[in-house]
Design goal:
Elements (H helix, E strand, L loop, with lengths): L4 E7 L3 E8 L6 E5 L10 H9 L3 E5 L18 H14 L5 E6 L1 H12 L4 E7 L10 H4 L19 H8 L1 H9 L2 H9 L17 H4 L21 H14 L2 H4 L5 H8 L10 E6 L14 H6 L3 E6 L5 H4 L1 H15 L20
Parallel strand pairs: 3-4, 3-5, 5-6, 6-7, 7-8
Antiparallel strand pairs: 1-2, 2-4
Length: 354
Amino acid sequence: MATLTHHDVTYAGDKKIHYLAAGPVDGPLILFIHGWPSTGITWKAQLDAFAAVGFRAIAPDMPGYGQSTARRVVDDYCQEALVEGMMALLADTGRKAAVWVGHDWGSGVTSSVAIQHPETVKALVSISVPYSTIELGWDGFLPLVNREIYPAGEYEFGQWDYMKHYEENFEKAIEWFDSDAVGFCKAITNKPAALPDRHTPVMMATVRKNGWLNGLPKPPSVEMTGPSMLPDDVFESFARDMQKTGFWSGSAYYLHHKRNAEYNGSRERKLKQPALFIHGIKDLVCDTKSSRLIEPMKEACSNLTEATIDAAHFVHFEKPKEVNAVLFRFIVEEVPSEWPGFLDSEYTKTKSDS
């Protein structure tokens, strides 16, 4: 296992981003950006694997999480403010560009980085949430809902109904998570059981009507769910951090669809750098298999690789080895300059005629 070091970068006056780093300081830089709800430590399987082969691997606690600034200030969590934080993080490494890997809202942030500062992106990896969707506000993803599963008359916001719940009743939405933060963390990191038919509407499509998890008064307690997909020490660190910050700040990412659209919508979104999208075939909320959610990324990226892993939304929790293998192969094949020693080492191969 890699030795993880802790770092802080201060920016925009009094904001702080805390991040974990592993691997040689002069190794190729790869940044792992988590989504909702996670912290930097949840990328530990990736930090260990990439540091072991010579990368400088970094995973921040995103604003609103862990040891980073987690104020109840809504403006802190729009994409413009988050990109400002990512530029401060990058500057603190002493580099001008990196391979960016994002999951969930982390994909939204890395997508915004690619739109606003394409010169800082050696390659872009999106997991579960494709580039050119969520960072563009409602218009970036709502038109892509599969209306055969979610007829507009009955499911106006499709499987994204829960996002509208945040906009309409934010404090009530957060109160439910905070009533048992550790229990909820355990429930969402529990290995998924057999999932419902892909053509059956998911619970997230009826949150405004029925409440979270079809109306449970509070999250399941830790005793009610099986073991976490995360190693025990990683889960305990993550859950402890979520209990400390609560869910208000991390969930405020959902309150800026209009503002995010204004920030990113008028910018050039064609991406020439190598890009990778990792599908979770069992992810029924960020459904990229039976909906058109992947189409904008296909249209925007001139060099796109896709990989599909037999997992649900938290792909890198559930199948870390498979995710790492896909990432390694993508970098070797599409961004060889970012593979440790690839260009500096003498490497020859002789084929025998026998």
